[in-house]
Specification:
The chain has 11 helices and 13 strands. The strands form 4 sheets. It has a 7-stranded parallel beta sheet, with helices on both faces. 41% of the residues lie in helices and 16% in strands. β1, α1 (16-28) and β2 (34-38) form a beta-alpha-beta unit. It is globular and about 60 Å long. With 331 residues, it is α/β, with parallel strands linked by helices.
Length: 331
């Protein structure tokens, strides 16, 4: 694989996908120099201890001056913009914070690139959640007009527009819209990690054998996080062939019943567990089925999802069992 054109800046590098993507980039390009941009000083400080090729840049994307100073100092050739308020449920309870994080932060980053690194390539972690109600008409492609139905999705779609408008024409912009994805490190605000964590605590005797759930009768396109980071790596490797503005879905093209994924985890549990609906976990107006078509990305890069649901659910459960055993699994 050809060498990278210069330093890589990852916003949200200390987060769930950021850590997986950092490892994937360093595996593909061992000589890469990666800078984590994060407001969490503690997480940033740990980055250099983990790998000498990763450098900490501590700043808040909401601070325009700090963002400009960081971009000027790093002079990135590639920016992977992952930082966001990513929980749909949390975004609905904190709309102002969500818009500040997802839209104002994206504006500040784009403005900083325009002023200090106008030749950079920016890859934006959007979301297939922007399709929203359009999923009711069938599988979605990049040609499907978005119909976002929640604060998170509206803010992510607005961030796409902000980046396209504010970045200079000299800066390439690739927007990716991944379907739901999970894996080791994913926290309990999300359905599958919540199931796995509860099972692990029940097995350890830290929770009564009752697993609380929301709506299980929905179909979702799920990916293991390793497939998502593979997609990012494929896009990075082909940046020279990308147009100035590009948009790709990341999905499996298959919809899985959430109840079936929970059943797969329960089949691996060491004891019988009761499943109980919790009103706090129920989301109103859920789209019944989401299926994200990935053919455009496959055609452009050769990428395809390779991990199946058994792999994804098994390693998520193993991760939470290990955390609980180490005393880090909450409860």
């Amino acid at each position: 694989m050809a060498a990278l054109p210069g330093p890589v800046l990852i916003t949200g590098g200390a987060g769930f996908v950021g850590r997986h993507l950092t490892r994937a980039v360093l595996e593909a390009w061992p000589q890469a120099q990666i800078h984590w941009f994060s407001r969490d000083e503690g997480k940033c400080a740990s980055s250099q201890a983990d790998d000498a090729r990763v450098f900490a840049v501590t700043a808040d994307l909401g601070d325009e001056a700090a963002v400009e100073a960081a971009v000027k100092a790093v002079q990135p050739a590639i920016v992977l913009h992952l930082a966001a308020q990513s929980s749909v449920a949390q975004s609905g309870k904190a709309a102002a914070e969500t818009w500040k994080a997802n839209v104002v932060g994206s504006y500040n980053l784009a403005a900083a690139i325009a002023g200090a690194a106008p030749g950079a390539n920016l890859i934006f972690a959007g979301s297939a959640d922007v399709y929203g109600l359009a999923c009711n008409a069938g599988d979605v492609t990049e040609e499907t007009p978005p119909q976002p139905q929640n604060v998170y999705a509206r803010s992510k779609l607005s961030a796409e527009a902000v980046l396209a408008d504010v970045l200079p024409s000299s800066a390439r912009l690739v927007t990716l819209r991944p379907a739901n994805h999970t894996g080791p490190g994913h926290d309990e605000r999300f359905a599958l990690p919540s199931f796995a964590a509860q099972i692990a605590r029940i097995e350890a005797g830290l929770q009564q054998p009752v697993l609380e759930i929301g709506n299980l009768d929905v179909f979702r396109d799920f990916l293991d996080v390793a497939d998502v980071t593979d997609a990012y790596v494929a896009v990075i490797a082909g940046l020279a062939e990308q147009p100035g503005r590009a948009l790709y879905n990341i999905g499996s093209g298959r919809a899985h019943l959430l109840r079936g994924l929970l059943d797969a985890m329960l089949s691996r549990a060491s004891q019988k567990i009761e499943v109980r609906i919790s009103p706090d976990r129920w989301r109103e107006n859920d789209v019944p089925r989401v299926c994200v078509r990935p053919e455009k990305l496959a055609s452009a890069t050769g990428w395809s999802a390779r991990r199946d649901m058994d792999f994804m659910t098994a390693r998520l459960l193993d991760y939470w069992r290990a955390r609980v055993a180490a005393g880090q699994g909450g409860g």
